[in-house]
Every structure is written in structure tokens, then in C-alpha cells.
Amino acid sequence: MLGAMQDFDLRVTHLIDHAAREHGSREIVTRWADGSETRTNWAGIRHDALRMTQALRKLGVQPGDRIATLAMNHSRHLVSWYGAVGVGGILHTINPRLFDDQLEYIANHAEDLVLLYDKAFTPIIERMKPKWTTIKHFICYDNGEFEDWIGQEDGKTTWATGDERDPCMLCYTSGTTGNPKGVLYEHRSTMLHAITGLQPAIFDFDTRSVMLPVVPMFHAASWGLPWAGAAAGIKFVFSAVNDAAVLCELMNREKVTHSAGVPTVWLATFQHMDATGTTLPTLRQAIIGGSAAPRFMIERLMKAGVNVAHAWGMTETSPIGTTGAQTWDWDERSFDEQVTIKQMQGRVPFGVELRTVDLGDPTKVLPRDGQTSGALQVRGPWIIKRYFKAEADATDAEQWFDTGDVAILHPDGTLQLTDRTKDVIKSGGEWISSVELENAAVGVPGVAEAAAIGIYHPKWDERPILVVVKKAGMDVTKEAIMAHLAERVAKWWLPDAIEFVDAIPHGATGKISKKDLRDQFREYKLADA
Ligand code: AMP
């Protein structure tokens, strides 16, 4: 027997219909790369997305076809998200910072048919065009090209309909080894994820919210913000350039209440604020994720009255996995305790389940005791089952996705990330968390960035060394760093050496590339090795 409620497929086009109908005049502001600004609103975004849907149909685009974007954050990119899914297509956001061989691989693997791009990325297009074998249509967002293209249409059409489990979006994640892998989101998974994102512990959205997302629209579905923002009818302020001065100016002028970005973005913002005396009086929710938020960052934001949603997730989890929600006894906790809780990766919203298993024996599920660390696994309706084009296999039925992260689960479910399985340092049969060493090291004044890696040791197997970039114009000694670490980690975790470098290598999403760093230090010899 079926229930007797109305048919309503969870398709993401409902989000833009809702935003245009209920919040049509709510503004979408864009500050473009050339310094100009434009303003539209949710009704305008929907109208343009409908026109883009018509224009795509004229190009022969069919439901299921891949429509790629190579673009920064702006209103035309937002139009394309809804225009691509509106035609029943699959939106494929490409990260322009990928290396050429990765760019070649993912566009061909995705079999992209159309590519929309920012003028700034023309050199990439020119370089890659001969290598991309499936893209038939290239449309530039600038020089009036995009406007002219959709300008020939009247918007009098309807969205493609279909099953709520149809795919709607494709994001590739560049692992540390092998080719990038595609994560294929569904309408249903995206919709459930969007609604979940609205809650106070995560984005904390209502119609008064003004969000400047610094997290790019090409990374991990921009944390789902373009979908969740439509559900709540928030005002968006986009900046096509990632410059702290521009971001701070926009935040103050547009009275931005919410922002989201990886820790390095917040660091750059702080540096600008310190140099200029700028404050951000309207900001009240800072979403930080992608890598661990250092303690001083959380402290500084909290002292300024900003709620920090320190979140863990990955492209494979749509990406929301956990966030640093307040505990039921929050008000009884001291400020220091509150910061300590926020420094961990938080708890799951309804829909996500976590467990840890033994690093050596994945059949052994570990206790949530706040002490034992293990390989983190996750499941839920917006968690990946298998990668795009991967064959179904027996592990699909298990429905537990192996994250590649190492974590401790606390009795109340709080997640504490301790490392990546590939980065954890094994010394004398015991694990040393590279992340904890790094977190402690960046708390030393004068340390801009730090990375810990394992170096071969004949007796201990591996021993940690710490690679450090100093802050410009500041001096810091190895002894000062070691003394700071000694107060925070076990004695046998202390690095065998500290090395100063000018820069630490980063991957395409701005995270430290441990693989490249290990390559750099391949010949390194420890003093007692
Ligand atoms: P990506 O798919 O590129 O977003 O990368 C996901 C990975 O980033 C996760 O598997 C974690 O290793 C790392 N990560 C994400 N959020 C956090 C966080 N809050 N703290 C520490 N690591 C994080």
C-alpha cells in the first residue's frame, strides 16, 4: 500500500522555483574580476536559468548530458547551476587550479558536452581545447557572450522532469594518488543535503542572512551553498576575486552576516584586518572546513561574537558530514572549553552516521571512547556509494564509505580528526598524528604554516619532522617551536627535526600536498638514522 500524500519529487529545480516565488526580490550581488558590480535577484536568476535551459536545448543538450563550468563565484555561474539541472543535465564544476593532465582527464572522463568559462581562464581553454575530445560548445561568461546567448530566449519554458534519483551534478576529487575520481550527486541527495544545511549548527540560514561564500563554486559543490541559499531565500554576495581587501570591503558594505571558507582564507582575512584596522561588525556565522581550523582562529572569531561552524566533510559526502554544534550544556562551559569543543570537527546532523574501524583490521568496529583512533567510515543518503563510472561491487551493499581519514569518536558522537590514513606517522608500532603536531605548531607566533611528515628511521620505522614556513617579517627559533610543542603533545611525538622552508607545496584545492612534501624530503636523513 502506498501513502496518500501528493507527488513531489525532490528535484533541485524546486529550490529555484521556491526562491523566485517566495524571495524573488532578494538580491544577488556580484563583484566582478574587473572591479565592476552587478545586482540581480532570485527572480532574475530563475528567469535567466530558464533562458539558459532553452538555449541548451537549442544546442541539442539532452537530459543526462554533462554541462561543465570553469569559473569563479558570480551570478552567471549561479544561473548556470540551475540552467544545467533545468535541462535535466548534469552540472560539472571544474577546478581551474588543477594541473593540465588532470584537466584533460576529468573533462574527457566526464564526457562534457558544453563548457562555460570565465574570460580569465581563456589560456586554459586554448591550451586544453585540442586535448578535450567531447566538448562541442565553448561559451564565455564575459564580453556579453553569455548574455547574448541566453538573450535570444524568452524564458517561457518548463524544467525537465524525471526521477528524484536522477543525477544532477558531478564533482571530481583529486586524490593524492591516481586519477581524479568523479562524485555523481542526485537530485534527491542534493535536496536533502540542502535542507539539512539550513540548520543553526551548519549554515544557520533564514531570509535575513547575507552570505559571502569564499569557498569556490568549483570545489565540493561550494558546500551546497547555492542550493541551500535558494531554499532559505538568502541574499548572496559573490566576489569573482579572492582578495582579502575586496572581501572585507564587500562584507562591510553589503552587511554580510555569513561567510564560508577554508582556514587559509580566514588567515588572509585576519592579516588584512590587522594591517588596516578593519573590523567585520556584521559577521555572525563563520563556516570553516576543508582542513582543521586552528585554535587561535576559532578563539579570535568567537571573541568577536561570531559563531564558528567548524565543519568536516569531503566531496564524497556532498560535502556536509559534521559541524561543531553547541552542546546542550554550552552556557555552563568556560570559554576555553567551548573553544576546545569547536576545535574538534563536531557532530553529525540527522542523516549522517559515523563509525571508526581498526586501522589494521577493518572488520573490527572501535568504541566511541574519546581515545581510540581508527579509520573513519560514513554512511547516509548524501554519501557516495561508488565513484562515477566505477563498476558496482560487493562493497556497495555494505553502505559504509571509507573516508581515508583517521579519527577518534567521543561518547557523545563528537568527531575528532587526527590524520589522513596516508599521512599518519608510524613510530615504533604506534601512531603519531601529523595534524596534531601541525595544529600545535601554528599556534606559535611567527609560524605561518607547518607540516609534519614521517621520515624513515631504522629503529622506529618512521619519525616525524616538522617543516615550517615563517611569517613574513617575523623570526622564530626551532627551540621556541619545540618548547611550545612539548607542552601540548606526548614526548615521543616531538619531531626529530624542524626545517624552515620558504614555501610548502599545495594542491589544487589549497590544501598542503603531503605527497609533494614527502617527495621533496625523500633523501632527507635524520641525525641518528
Ligand atoms: P575535499 O573532498 O577536497 O573537500 O577533501 C576532504 C578532506 O578534507 C577530508 O577527507 C579531510 O581529510 C579534510 N577535511 C575536511 N574538513 C576538515 C576539518 N574540519 N578538519 C580537518 N580536516 C578536514
What is the secondary structure topology, with strand pairs?
Layout: H1 13-23, E1 27-31, E2 37-41, H2 42-58, E3 66-70, H3 75-86, E4 90-93, H4 100-110, E5 112-117, H5 122-128, E6 137-140, H6 145-151, E7 167-173, E8 181-186, H7 187-197, E9 210-213, H8 225-232, E10 235-239, H9 244-253, E11 258-261, H10 263-276, E12 285-289, H11 295-303, E13 307-313, E14 320-323, H12 335-343, E15 353-357, E16 373-379, E17 401-409, E18 415-420, E19 425-427, E20 430-432, H13 434-441, E21 447-457, E22 461-470, H14 478-486, E23 497-500, H15 514-520
Parallel strand pairs: 1-10, 3-4, 3-5, 4-7, 5-6, 9-10, 9-11, 11-12, 12-13, 22-23
Antiparallel strand pairs: 1-2, 7-8, 13-14, 15-16, 16-17, 17-18, 19-20, 21-22
Largest sheet: 8 strands, mixed
CATH C-level class of the largest domain: Alpha Beta
Class computed from helices, strands and strand pairing: alpha/beta
Mean pLDDT: 94
Oligomeric status of the shown chains?
single chain
| CATH topology title of the largest domain | Rossmann fold
Short description:
The protein has 529 residues and is an alpha/beta fold. Helices cover 28% and strands 24% of the residues.
